[in-house]
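REQUEST FORM: STRUCTURE PREDICTION
Request ID: SP-0412
Submitted by: Lab K.M.
Chain count: 1
Length (residues): 119
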Amino acid sequence: MHVCIVRCWTCVHACVCVYVCVCTQELLDSTVAGAADPHTTLVVYMGLQTLPNLYQQLAAHGMTPDLPAVAVERGTTRRQRVAWGTVSELPQRAAAAGLKSPALIIIGQVCVCAFTTMQ
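STATUS: Completed
RESULT:
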């Protein structure tokens, strides 16, 4: 297995966006340490299976529990479903919504912008 981390700097919000694939617990453990920055947008591919442990790992590295987050199942399709909340609430909200893979988990202030736009 391999981990792909791509850091992209963007002038839209003058922040860093980190893309991470954590489809197994081993990948989660090895990549989350550098991704807990509250000024970063974290996009987790194939992370629904490890979502229950994601916040615990991020919190252990300093992420605050009230950071906005969303899980998106089948994004950009007619069958898209989402679960919104804070990073600490998201595992329960995604489970309650019955979300399944494929899904993206997005964590960061950018989620507030998206939520506001969709309302």
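NOTES: The chain has one domain: 5-118.
Reviewed by: T.R.
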